[in-house]
Amino acid sequence: MSYLLVKHAHLGFVLLSLGLFVFRLGLSVRQSAYLQRRWLRILPHVNDTLLLLCGLWLASQIRQYPFVNSPWLTAKLLALLLYIALGTLAIKRAPSPGLRLLFGLLALLVFAYMLAVAITKSPLAGLTL
């Protein structure tokens, strides 16, 4: 499989993931019943699985491995775990719309950090003033 094809697919999945998160966050903050639609509960998980699989394939192709020889991928993976936790609070677990919005905004900051790390290949991306 072509490296560029997978890289562009990965970028597409990133954009779709972000769009779906922002859309779902808006529905969650508004406490909309639309959030319970079957497709809206399944599609983000399918997309994020494809995103992760592409990322793993790309990492293997460039021979960069988290916790082994790639501090930037390690930072990105740890940030991904934080993003998932914050996203879960924002969409499902926070008890009030205000807290859902707060956790959603924090998740978006972590998402921005992951993008900066991916672009710069530095775990300090976006952290220095």
Descriptive key words:
4 helices; globular
Walkthrough of the structure:
This protein is an all-alpha fold and 129 residues long. The protein has helices spanning 3-29, 38-61, 71-93, 97-120. The model has no long low-confidence stretch (mean pLDDT 95). The protein is 76% helix and 0% strand. The chain is globular, with a radius of gyration of 16 Å.
Biggest sheet descriptor: none
Query: Residue ranges: pLDDT <50 for 5 or more in a row?
Result: none
Write the element-wise H/E pattern from the N-terminal end onward.
HHHH
Strand content: under 5%
Tally of alpha and pi helices: 4
Distance between the termini: 39 Å
**Beta-strand segment tally:** 0
Q: Structural class per helix/strand content?
A: mainly alpha
Mean pLDDT: 95
Helix content: over 70%
What is the overall silhouette? globular
Q: What radius of gyration results from the CA coordinates?
A: 16 Å
